[in-house]
Amino acid sequence: MIRYKNLILIGTSHIAASSIQDVETVIRAEKPVIVALELDRARFRGLLEKKPGTPSLRMIKHFGFKGYLFARIGHYVEHTLGNAVGVSPGSEMLRAAQVAQEYHAKIALIDQPIDITLKRFSQQLTWKERFRFFGDLVTNISKKQKIPFDLRNVPPQELIQKLISDVKKKYPSVYTTLIAERNIYMAKRLHSLLQNNEGTIIGVIGAGHEEEIITLVQHFEQT
User: Fold this and answer.
1) Please, which contacts does 45-52 make with residues 24 or more away whose CB atoms are closer than 8 Å?
2) 3-state class of 143 per DSSP?
3) What is the pTM of this model?
4) What is the pLDDT of residue 13?
């Protein structure tokens, strides 16, 4: 958790039971005027309706094959790991929204729309990165590598930063579209909320985004 002025960012894991408890505890303690979620309207609606939206072949027309394939793999991995620990992906976001409503806090959806993210991903992913990804995938499956942390908890910051650094080095376009560009988008939304609200704002975002988003918010304040 990071504090900056009247902004509090909580880094979560979307399938960690501990994250559900963390967001509830912080929201009840701080009683914010706004709870900002790392979601767009489509994903938030899917959580509320308990319809996570399995990627369909029709997505290829809108997002390209690479965007569709990424969404399909991501959906499969996240739900497989979620089933392993008994937590539906995004449960911490849903709980944050529920507790926010108890305290009559506004809910702000601050993430870039998923269709834009997937289109950007499809456009930017290089052939080199594509071949490297499938090579890494085959290697990891053949070696049956174990996940180096407890899925029920948020990974240690050191591990998160190492993983982000590895992605930036091996898959620069993936890093740009899935992390860097979304950080900028969310930071701008949070900066706008800070400019227009004096009460406490709590942001619930994926672990690993916090420090960069705070740095960007500070940058936008100075420009």
Assistant:
1) 47/90, 47/93, 47/94, 47/97, 48/94, 48/97, 52/79, 52/88, 52/89, 52/90
2) helix
3) 0.82
4) 86
